[in-house]
Amino acid sequence: MEAISEVEPKTRIRVGDEVWIATALLHRENPDREDFEVQEIVERVGKLNLSGRLRGGVAPHAYLHCVANRPPKPNPYRMLYATGKSRRRLYRDGDPCHPERSGKVRPQRGEIPEEYRGLLDWYEKDYAQGAASDPRENPILSLWGVGKEIWRDEDPDEYVRRLREGWE
Questions:
Q1: Structure pTM?
Q2: E-only strand ranges, 21-131
């Protein structure tokens, strides 16, 4: 379960939501950049100070817990997308993700401070629209099933045995 700040109730916020807000703000402030170093995101969370302190879970959430294309450990959130070892951007519908990831892609409106709720509208209207939601629009995913008729009547074990004939 994700940690919630132990400060006054009006500032209670989930770590993953802090990470999403910081990343969304970085995107809006730097529209020419596709992604950000995890350290930039962590520093931005610290500057925002939404929970009263920079919590230890921020970096793990930015590196792993909120990252759609990484195995879920433990959260299944799909809030960020890894574009490199230490680079992240916000997740978009249509991004490939780990098959066990099915969690939220953005904070719930009522769970974040009011002054950041406009980021949710920006995300839905402007940012998330940039993704290909139809797998057929992705050139790699469009190859799914190509050539399957070639192998329809082929037994995989028999095929490997034939390939290995004559090996010593």
A1: 0.72
A2: 36-37, 80-84, 87-90
Helices (H), the chain: 15-29, 38-48, 58-60, 118-122, 156-164
Nearest to 136 by CA among 94, 78, 91: 94
pLDDT single digits (tens) 7-50: 344 458 999 999 999 999 999 999 999 999 999 999 999 999 99
| Dist. CA 2–CA 62, nearest whole Å | 13
User: Nearest 5°: CA angle at 65, between 71 and 58?
Assistant: 155
Which helix (DSSP H) or strand (DSSP E) does residue 20 occupy? Answer: helix 15-29
Residue with tokens 């959430």: 61
The span from the CA of 123 to the CA of 59, in Å, is 22
